[in-house]
Amino acid sequence: MQRLFTIVTHHSIPPILLALIVGFVSLVLWAPWWIWGFVLLGVPAQMLNEYTLHRFVFHLAPPQKQWAFNLLYEAHYGHHDFPTNTKLFFAPVWVSVPMMVINFAIVWAVASFVVPAHAVMIATAVVLVGGVATFLGYEWFHMTAHVNCSKSWLARHVTKLHNQHHFRDFSKWFHVSPGGHVIDRVMGTAIDTNALKQQQRIEFIRTLGLRPDDPRLVAARQHYADRFDLSEKDLQQAARA
């Protein structure tokens, strides 16, 4: 129940959940039966989208401009900096909602060339139902990987790989959703157990290679201290980590 409360009370989850409900109801009311097959297409599409966003956007080189650094800190750097802070578990709404809208527009545009009469319903099936459901699953498993709770075999497997990303090598294991490790292996960002045993832990791993007292990090922590409930002790410990 605690995990359920944590996820549904985060500001980015209700609009995404609403989109899923609207999409599902739309398919029930107006879509022909064969449109439901496109829901399955949304699963791998969203998993690939998650990997791409995490690897190539959330792990961008740290910007020099403080405003840009702050955005990246809120989107992802802060989660690495404070990996147990529940307010930093989930993608901010200004990331998740625009990405959903962009994905919907792309699928609708492609479908318009093939089956224009059903383009909206196809985009609804792929993005608002299959994609959003997969995204919510990602957010659930990501949260579960970071909390101390009873976990299924699948959740323990996800946690093991995600812990390697956070605490051993942040350039590996970008995926969190079950089955996403296949994408990491194909893309060359997996690391096997034997290689991990021989690899040194990356320096300043919680700050993605930046010195913990980097002025940009210090400024970003101060900027978001109230929003993320960071105490003065938290800020001082982070700067010395």
From TrEMBL:
One of its GO terms (molecular function) is iron ion binding. GO terms for biological process: lipid biosynthetic process. It holds the Pfam family FA_hydroxylase. Residues 40-189 form the Fatty acid hydroxylase domain. It comes from the Bacteria. Keywords: Membrane, Transmembrane, Transmembrane helix. The chain crosses the membrane at residues 16-41, 88-111, 117-138. This is Fatty acid hydroxylase domain-containing protein. It comes from Octadecabacter ascidiaceicola.
